[in-house]
Write a structure and sequence with these properties.
mainly alpha
Amino acid sequence: MKKFLAELEDNFCGMILLVMTILTCINVFARYVFRSSMPFVEELTSLGLVIISLTGAAVAAKRGAHLGLTLLTDFLPKKAQKACIILGHILGIVFGAIMLYYGVLMARQEFVLGQKTAGMQWPEWLFGMFIPISGAVLLIRYGQLAITTWMKKEDEE
């Protein structure tokens, strides 16, 4: 269970990508064989792309796979390097908190206004709710990284 929770975002992104791939293949087949496409597939794959992009940022943060330029920080002493890394994690926390806050406001507004998607006529907030969810996941992951970096001893680095 612990491993499943540790890799929750990875599994979620993998499942979304699998569904997107299957739907797109079916839609391409339908377009060329039956000369008719399924309009809802475009909306679902767009939603999947948003989910994978935002949740993938949390996966990259967890793995330490975000791009970084260490040209200047390499010349700093170890303590200053650690401070820069923690500052980066704090900025990630702030970004996640901003996504969470404004994503909730956006989804709430979509719910109150009763906005519907263009093709499927589904409530727009069902799509919009993934922004605050992804923001919360980013906030948690960067919080974990900040704490582990802070607790790491100098000789472990």
